[in-house]
Design a protein that fits this description.
The complex is a heterodimer of chains A (about 325) and B (about 325).
Chain A: H1 3-21, E1 25-26, H2 27-33, H3 38-48, E2 63-67, E3 70-74, H4 87-98, H5 107-121, H6 125-134, E4 138-141, H7 150-159, E5 161-169, E6 174-188, E7 191-198, E8 203-208, E9 212-221, H8 230-238, E10 247-252, H9 257-264, E11 269-271, E12 277-282, H10 286-295, E13 300-304, H11 306-323
Antiparallel strand pairs in A: 1-3, 2-3, 5-6, 5-9, 6-7, 7-8, 10-12, 10-13, 11-12
Chain B: H1 3-16, H2 23-29, H3 31-34, H4 39-55, E1 60-63, E2 72-75, H5 77-80, H6 89-102, H7 111-125, H8 128-136, H9 146-161, E3 165-171, E4 176-190, E5 193-200, E6 205-210, E7 214-219, E8 254-260, H10 264-272, E9 277-281, E10 284-292, H11 299-304, E11 309-313, H12 315-331
Antiparallel strand pairs in B: 1-2, 3-4, 3-7, 4-5, 5-6, 8-10, 8-11, 9-10
Helix pairs in contact in B: 7-8
Classes of the chains: A alpha+beta (about 325), B alpha+beta (about 325).
């Protein structure tokens, strides 16, 4: 059986009992819950009308239908509950749980382990045996783990409670305190991020969780922001601007050219006649450029602006003086 | 009748049957499916359908009759149905937060399974309205390319079924393209990248491969239900995928000591967590990196902080840093 058919059948075995429990669920909500678009879902509903048990008399068929944008089902006895977890579903949950198992997570790590243990206990013996054979084969590494403040921030988001944080802002190389209204926690490219309204700057900001140095609840409740899609906002902020007035050009030696192309993608890169590469960045902070260029240990140079090029050299000389 | 419909009909039929159902009864109930064609063709088709039902994780069993009991196939409702899960609100909230984070892993071969698993947890606790709302609309994060996505899903299946894969691999540092035959042992996700660990028949050793650098990939199509290999006893994936670049195995382990100035010192302590030991030195902090097996892996961390980082030990690393800083300083002249 193909992976797609496998997934489709498992989705249908969930869909029927779900609608049975939630008769009249809006079509749009059901589609989003199953990550389908509405047209796909209507096609699956039409398909399910042909499913039933022998002798396939009208009363033996799954009677599922859409009425005024809502979905209903009447059933023969089967399919009132979804099937148990499969080994792949359990592996997926176990991989997700790995994100929270770091020592610094404390009680939260224990709670996730207990929850996963309850899922494992619900498995039939054969599925459990398969799971045990595969569990060690998948590893999900978060960089340094989400840190000790994740649980507090999660509760604060749920309770809409303000939080005072100490935060290291890498783009300015400074640590400061601020009161924030936390809205969302997300995981991108192995790192955790917090999207919050900063009451000092009066703006929505993105914080990297590992740079939150301390967090404590403030005794103040904030109003929820309606229609705020924190995930989309984060993706937008993490994307380096494709244009802007401030332009920085970085040159990478041909020794690391392949790595740079793989990392940055070909769009931002111009290959030079000598095999080196030039990347053009827009609206990035000085501190970011200095740190990034320095990390390559001479294999990357700032081409422009000239002032930043001189600044990097001066900083390298200062570091050399300090080291002697 | 199409396969999808037939499999669901069979499941519904067996779930609703009060007693085991013999193959004869199944044939009579599904005349269009199991009566046309030769005996062997029909038997093979039924065998495949049974295997598919088992592959879906459903407890199809053949009950052998004793004395007056009837012999035949069953799917017992108790073993089929998802039981209620007794999860506390904290456990649920954290599991869902972990799940929602893992749904955002780029190109995850688990994405669809994870989403369905979270749906099932929500169903089993009766909290589906509350729990699923923030997660159902979030789109899965795609891999960097459709090819990478396909490769990840194929590798995931090959690992589970223990099937050997053949692939065209573009080694980045040697810049060479080679044909590899690999027994896939495991997959790891690290900072946006997926890494395959497996036994490479060409190098005759356990190797890591960046999935993004795999060009073409094919899973051995022969005997899909019988495994091609066994991973060595006691294989532990994390030993082959270091969480930090300084733990790549290049040389014998050494300890490195690096001093970081404020304010970045505190942020580094927070970022590296318990992986390093930190002691205060006035406002600064001295970090001990234990068991470093690749000093070069520490270079970017030291260099990016320029005058705010200073290597105390070993001298070898301090020399490398000095040489790199000289190159950087030269780059600014002229």
């Amino acid at each position: 059986m193909s992976a797609d058919l496998h997934h489709r059948l498992r989705t249908l075995l969930f869909l029927v009992p779900y609608v049975y429990r939630h008769r009249g669920v809006p079509l749009a909500e059901l589609a989003s819950r199953l990550r389908m678009d509405e047209r796909e879902l209507v096609a699956e509903i039409d398909f399910l009308l042909m499913v039933g048990r022998p002798p396939f008399l009208p009363n033996d068929m799954i009677d599922i239908y859409v009425d005024a944008g809502k979905v209903y089902v009447d059933l023969p006895q089967a399919l009132q509950r979804p099937p148990r977890f499969t080994v792949y579903e359990t592996l997926a949950l176990a991989c997700a749980a790995q994100l929270f198992t770091g020592d610094e997570m404390g009680e939260a790590a224990v709670a996730v382990r207990v929850a996963l243990g309850k899922v494992l206990d619900s498995l039939p013996p054969e599925t459990r045996r398969l799971f045990d054979g595969l569990a060690e084969r998948y590893l999900v590494l978060g960089a340094g783990g989400p840190g000790p403040h994740l649980d507090l921030l999660r509760r604060a988001i749920a309770d809409r409670q303000e939080v005072k944080i100490r935060y290291y802002a890498a783009s300015r190389d400074e640590t400061g305190e601020r009161v924030i209204q936390p809205h969302g926690l997300h995981f991108r490219r192995g790192l955790w991020y917090l999207v919050a309204f900063c009451t000092e700057r009066e703006d929505l900001r993105v914080f990297r969780l590992s740079r939150v140095l301390s967090a404590e609840l403030v005794d103040r409740i904030f109003e929820p922001e309606d229609d705020l899609d924190t995930g989309a906002l984060l993706d937008e902020r993490l994307e380096l601007p494709a244009e802007g007035e401030r332009v920085v050009r970085l040159r990478f030696s041909n020794r690391i050219a392949r790595w740079v192309t793989e990392h940055w993608g070909p769009e931002r890169i111009e290959e030079q006649p000598d095999g080196s590469l030039v990347a053009t960045l827009h609206e990035v902070s000085d501190e970011f450029v200095l740190a990034y260029a320095a990390s390559f240990g001479g294999e990357a140079a700032i081409e422009s602006p000239e002032s930043l090029r001189r600044e990097l050299a001066a900083q390298a000389r200062r570091a050399l003086d300090g080291a002697d | 009748m199409k396969k999808a419909e037939r499999v669901l009909d069979l499941v519904a039929f067996l779930l609703d049957s009060r007693e085991p159902v013999s193959f004869e009864e199944i044939r009579n109930a599904f005349p269009e499916d199991y009566q046309e064609g030769s005996e062997t063709a029909v038997a093979r088709k039924f065998e495949r359908d049974k295997a598919d039902i088992v592959e879906l994780g459903l407890p199809l069993a053949l009950r052998i009759g004793e004395e007056y009991d009837k012999e035949g196939y069953v799917i017992e409702r108790d073993s089929y149905e998802l039981p209620g899960l007794d999860l506390g609100p904290e456990e649920l909230a954290l599991l869902f937060l972990a799940g929602s984070a893992a749904l955002q892993i780029e190109g995850s071969p688990f994405g669809r399974d994870l989403h369905l698993a979270m749906n099932k947890i929500a169903f089993s606790t009766g909290l589906d309205e509350v729990l699923m709302r923030p997660f159902s609309t979030a789109p899965a994060s795609p891999a960097h390319s459709p090819r990478q996505q396909e490769n990840l899903e194929a590798l995931h299946r090959a690992i589970a079924a223990r099937k050997t894969v053949t692939m065209t691999y573009h080694g980045l540092w040697r810049d060479e393209i080679t044909q590899r035959k690999v027994d896939p042992y495991g997959l790891a996700y690290r900072r946006g990248d997926w890494i395959l660990v497996g036994h490479c028949h060409l190098r005759k050793d356990v190797r890591q491969f960046h999935v993004g650098r795999i060009r073409g990939l094919a899973v051995n199509p022969l005997k899909p239900r019988s495994p091609d290999f066994e991973a060595p006893e006691g294989f532990v994936l994390s030993e082959h995928v270091p969480a930090q670049p300084w733990w790549i195995r290049v040389h014998d382990p050494v300890d490195a000591r690096i001093r970081f100035e404020p304010p970045v010192a505190e942020a580094i302590a927070s970022e590296l967590g318990p992986a390093v030991r930190a002691e205060s030195d006035g406002e600064a902090r001295i970090f001990t990196f234990e068991g470093v097996t690749y000093l070069g892996g520490l270079l970017p961390l030291v260099l990016m902080h320029r005058a705010r980082a200073r290597v105390l030990a070993p001298a070898e690393l301090a020399d490398e840093v000095r040489a790199a800083l000289e190159r950087i300083a030269e780059g600014g002249e002229g």
